């Protein structure tokens, strides 16, 4: 039985220096919970929002929402997992930056044999997000064109490959020419370096003046207005992140003026709250990875002790693909 495990904890919000590696209580799983020993943990931009206080969290709080490892114990009522099973998860409850933890079992998924732990840790939160963006947010059919910002990031490279596998034309944006090359290699039909070119004009040019059916925008403040201007009439704006800062309040009338646009602001955690839905989404994602349609690219690995450096790299736009922490 594990009493404590090395865990990254914050006692206050702030810069990367508030991330502290401590011994944190683990305990036994209660009803509907599992205890898992991590082999690898995923780094996500949402971890930055929690650390800085953009998304409120009760303090002190362990950090991290995604990991993979081996189930050590299961609580009463858990039937889809047993001790010794390999598993991976994305969870709304932080605590994944750790050697071991207890968490609700509903979001913990059996990891297929063909997927290793590092890949599992690098793909759950990001890949399930791509699943709901393409499958559960607005109808998108083969031949439709989607604009996807930060296309060379963790979520981005999975989105590029997902779109290619579904016959959807993805126009990506990224902050350097090298990142654009990476997005193209992973299935983006076009990629705009939005630090050099006006992406709104470029999207118009690429779509024969029409605009795109859907924008998936996780950059937020810096791209929001341009994203709306890249849509065709009746188009759908999916605003799902704030890497450059939160979107300022805007007038609903803007949507009418710009062509009866639609807008939604979804989060993964609503989509995976139900166990059956979460497990079904994970199976769809695993199938894409096992078939080779999607290859999870891990471009950065950090020991758990260097978690602050991992955050610095992510915030400085220095990472591509997924980043994992090794406990
Ligand atoms: P990424 O690996 O995509 O990293 C974020 C990227 O955003 C950067 O690499 C950078 O790419 C781009 N960016 C643009 N402007 C800035 C800025 N001012 N500061 C920092 N980065 C900037 O992260 P993730 O894959 O972890 O997540 C991608 C996005 O998706 C995040 O915004 C995240 O919050 C969101 N998300 C939302 C979910 C939801 O359900 N709502 C779930 C999962 C993720 P470049 O240099 O190419 O511009």
UniProtKB/TrEMBL annotation:
Coiled coil: none
A cellular component term, taken from the record's GO annotations: cytosol
The organism's place on the tree of life at top rank: Bacteria
Keywords: NADP, Oxidoreductase
Residue intervals of the Enoyl reductase (ER) domain: 14-325
Annotated Gene3D superfamilies: Medium-chain alcohol dehydrogenases, catalytic domain, NAD(P)-binding Rossmann-like Domain
SUPFAM superfamilies: GroES-like (SSF50129), NAD(P)-binding Rossmann-fold domains (SSF51735)
Molecular function via GO: mRNA 3'-UTR AU-rich region binding; NADPH binding; quinone reductase (NADPH) activity; zinc ion binding
Xref: InterPro entries: ADH-like_C (IPR013149), ADH-like_N (IPR013154), ER (IPR020843), GroES-like_sf (IPR011032), NAD(P)-bd_dom_sf (IPR036291), QOR-like (IPR047618), Quin_OxRdtase/zeta-crystal_CS (IPR002364)
One Pfam family recorded for the sequence: ADH_N
PANTHER family referenced in this protein's UniProt entry, alphabetically: QUINONE OXIDOREDUCTASE PIG3-RELATED, QUINONE OXIDOREDUCTASE-RELATED
Protein name per its UniProtKB record: NADPH2:quinone reductase
